[in-house]
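Fold Annotation — chain and its backbone
Next Lines — sequence and tokenised fold

***
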Amino acid sequence: MSETVLLDTDVASFLFKNSPRAKPFRPLIKGKRAALAFVSVAELFKWTLKRRWSPPKVQQLEAALHRYLIVPYERELAWVWARLVATCEDAGRPIAPSDAWVAATALRHDVELLTNNFKHFEAAEALCGLKLLHPRNL
């Protein structure tokens, strides 16, 4: 997955909504293949339900997802997730399960994770070598 960057759910949401918050992230994905972990797709779908999106807006999201490489679950990814969660827990720095899936996806495929929620992934960066990409890192 060279020249690929994994987007955290929040960044994908900013881009989908064309939010002003997306502006600093756009240059970081320019010229790269943007990817989403399977769990980020599920989180985006959940948001459509929680916010009672109209069917046309849901269809817009579905269409927007075609722009991304969607990284599916696979056995080795589950092992990376398990090692990541155990390592963070053993160090007294637990990570939320959905964040752990996103981080494990980036680790499994050796790509940078572009996030707005830097603090959610600091333990994975420090303890497991997760490569974080954030506008403030530049």
Observations:
- The radius of gyration is 15 Å.
